[in-house]
Structure formats: structure tokens, C-alpha cells
Amino acid sequence: MDVQLARTFLVVIASGSFVRAAERLHVTQSAISLRIQKLEEALGHRLFERSKSGVDLTPRGLQFETYARSMIQAWEEARYQIALPAGFDAKLSVGTQYSLWPELTSVWLEIMERSMPSVALTCHVGMPDRLTRLMLSGLLDIAVVYTPEMRPGLRAEHLMDDRLVLVSGRKDPSSTLDENYIFMDWGPEFTAAHARWYPDFQLSHTTLMLGAAAVPYLIRNGRTAFLPYRVADDFIMSGELHPVPESPELPYPAYVVWSDAQPDDVMSRALECLREAAAKAP
Hints:
Blueprint: H1 3-15, H2 18-25, H3 29-43, E1 48-51, E2 54-57, H4 59-82, E3 90-96, H5 101-115, E4 119-125, H6 128-136, E5 142-145, E6 154-168, E7 183-184, H7 188-197, E8 207-208, H8 215-221, E9 224-228, H9 229-237, E10 242-243, E11 250-259, H10 264-280
Parallel strand pairs: 3-4, 3-5, 7-8
Antiparallel strand pairs: 1-2, 5-11, 6-9, 6-10, 6-11
């Protein structure tokens, strides 16, 4: 569907009449009428009820409004993502999980800025499912995640190893999973290992899927949870989090996932920069 038609539809809603919409868009009233007519024919429903005082949305028009706004938002995002800034030869969009930002992604960006000065960079931080959706929709070229979801058109490589450690906001944490324990969802491999180490564990009162963003909650409330060591180590050193004695350390490898859409030279340089950043990560 023509994005111009959806945009005109929204301007008519905001203006309250075809006349005022024409003034806003600097076209004739007949042009507005023709666009709305084409839109109604494409959808097979009337979208506006006309009157001397202006226009009102029909029930179908009210229903279509949400979709029209989504279309415009998606179009504007696509224009922004695809547009190449002046002075650059290529554009690269990368993303990592929250917990990988401080010690890996920030270093990676610094290396790419030095090594790839003609490539415009965009960085996303999020959970693995969101990063995967961005990759499948073509809005993300490279992602670094702990639990990759492999799909057609995506390639993956083991990048580095981390480990999940049990820590607590309490100074004297219990070695058993008591009422202060929070289950953090770190993926199916963690869930399976957790079940082997704690076969009698019942679901905790609270389950979090916040990743590293859950740290302040653990500290303020004296709660216990498994965290990647790369996230927990600074808080352990500062005395804000405390290792739980006699608890297991569970393997937690990180992977880089990338698409084949980018030119080989841009992708290979970005991956080399990432491997260099991973080698420097503590």
C-alpha cells in the first residue's frame, strides 16, 4: 500500500476535514479526496463519514488508524536505517545483550571507530529474542548473544566464555535456594544445568528476565540469583554483591551471529574488530 495514502489518512484525522488536510499537505482538496478514495477502494470499506462540519471516522476507519500509524512508523524507521549519512561508504548495525555492553561492546565500538572510519555505526542493546527479530527483519547485521537462535541466512561463531555465578545482596547468603532466591532465565542450557544441580527446586516466588538490569533489585532487596561473572565481578569487588558459598559455576559461552546481507569486506573487518575486543575483555 502507498505510504502516502496512509499519511494522508492520518492528516485528515488530525485536521478534521479534507479542506484543512489539503492546506497542511499543500495540495488541492480534490487530491485529498482522490487519495482517500483510493485507500477506501484498496481496503474495501469506507473510512470517513462526510458532513458539512467535517469528517468522522467510521468503525472501520477507527480500526485502520492503528495500522496506519504502525505503517508510517515502520516506514520512517526503514528510511532512517537504510539512509547512508554523507561522508560514509557503508552502514553497519550491531547489537549485544545488556550484560555484554560494559566490557565488550563499548570496546568493540571504539575499535571499529578507529579501524573503520568510513563505516557509519548503529548500536542496539537488548534481549536475545529482540536482537534476533531485528536481524530477521534486516535491521541488524551482527549480534553478540549468550544463547543464539539460528535461522536461515544467519551464521554463528563461538566468541568467548563466561560463567554464571550465584551471588546475593545479603552479606551472609544461604548456600541453599531459600525464599530470597530469584530465578533468572538465562536460556534453556542454564535451565537444564540448574535442574541437575538443584533437582528439588520449586519455582521461586519471582522470576526475572531482565538480565544485568536486575542487579540493583538484588542489591536493594538482599536477593540471590545467578549472574554472568562479567556482570557480577565489579559488584563483588565493591562489596555490593556477595558470592554464595558452595554453589556451582555454570558455563555460559557467548556467540557472535551475523547475516550474509552485508558486503564481505565490511563484515569481515567488523568481525575482526569484535574478536580483538573479546580478546581484551577481562
